[in-house]
Amino acid sequence: MNDTVRDLLAANDAHAAAFDSRFDHVQDAQYPDAVTVCCSDSRVLQDHIWGNDEPGQLFTCANIGNRVIQRTDHGEVVSGDVLYPLVHTETDTAIVVGHTGCGAVTATYDHLTSGLSDAPGIEHCIGLLAPALEAGVDALADDVSRAAAINRLVEYNVDRQVDALLESPDVPDHVDVVGVVYDFQDVYDGRRGEIHVINVAGETDVSLLKESYPDIADRFDRLWTP
Questions:
Q1: For tag attachment on the chain, is the N or C end more exposed, with fewer CB atoms within 10 Å?
Q2: Which domain holds residue 91?
Q3: 8-state DSSP, 192
Q4: How far apart are CA 69 and CA 171, in angstroms?
Q5: Which positions make up the binding site?
Q6: Cα separation of 208 and 151, whole Å?
Q7: In the chain, what's the furthest Cα-to-Cα distance?
Q8: pLDDT in tens, 5-57
Q9: What's the CATH code of the domain at 152?
Q10: Contact, 119 vs 110, CB < 8 A?
Q11: pTM to 2 decimals?
Q12: Does 24 fall in a domain?
């Protein structure tokens, strides 16, 4: 066993000591406030970005590209990982969390613009993103830099995942759907690690969002609306 596993087990000792009595209220059931769909990127600390250390508060899903869909014999549907809390645990909020410099979005961009190929498992994931991002790639200005293109497509991908949730007949109508971008690369105005809200129930106009939610107006920001 390597040192990484030993270090992780040592860290878990501290976790278990701190949380020993904090699972009492969720021993038999869970009713999380929100399901978050994050990218698996190691720089996106899914619970810590919300300051969460409460068992049972967030139902966290992760995959490369923060996708909400999966491909089945019935076509593309909302992934069971995302759908489960919305249908079975009374969760009424879904948050799609993109992040700056996303590797999955980058790989999809390269696939669409230069035919990049990868291992079959990664190509499967890219294949789920590519149809949603293709129109976004086409809409990019010719003079936009590669880095700027990727970060605009990060927003575009979040929008498409929000759309998929809103349009799915499997997602209850009362569920609030929000799209955000987590920035640790100084792309938006703000602090590293800050969440920027870019989409609320399909609305992407920052001015309208600020008017609708004046108490959190400073949290709305977008790089691009194609």
A1: N
A2: 30-219
A3: T
A4: 12
A5: 39, 99, 102
A6: 22
A7: 57
A8: 999 999 999 999 999 999 999 999 999 999 999 999 999 999 999 999 999 99
A9: 3.40.1050.10
A10: no
A11: 0.96
A12: no
What sign does the dihedral 79-148-182-203 (CA atoms) show? negative
- Total Cβ atoms within 10 A of residue 48: 10
Asked, for residue 12, whether it belongs to a domain, the answer is no
226 in any annotated domain: no
Q: What is the pLDDT of residue 226?
A: 87
- Using CA atoms, how far residue 190 sits from 46, 96, 137, in Å, is 19, 20, 26
In a domain, 176, yes or no: yes
Query: How would you label 141-173 residue by residue, b for 16+ Cβ within 10 Å and e otherwise?
Result: eeeeeeeebbbbbbbbbbbbbbbbbeebeebee
Q: Could you tell me the two tokens for 190?
A: 């703000």
Residue 222: name the closest of 132, 162, 143 by CA: 162
Residue range 161-187: mean pLDDT, rounded: 98
pLDDT tier at 74 (50, 70, 90 boundaries)? confident
Cα separation, 49 vs 100, in Å, equals 14
Neighbours of 176 (CB within 10 A): 11
| Count of domains for the chain | 1
> Distance between CA 51 and CA 189 in Å, rounded?
21
Binding residues for Zn(2+): 39, 99, 102
> Cα–Cα–Cα angle for 150, 76, 50, nearest 5°?
50
CB-based contact 182:88 (threshold 8 Å): no
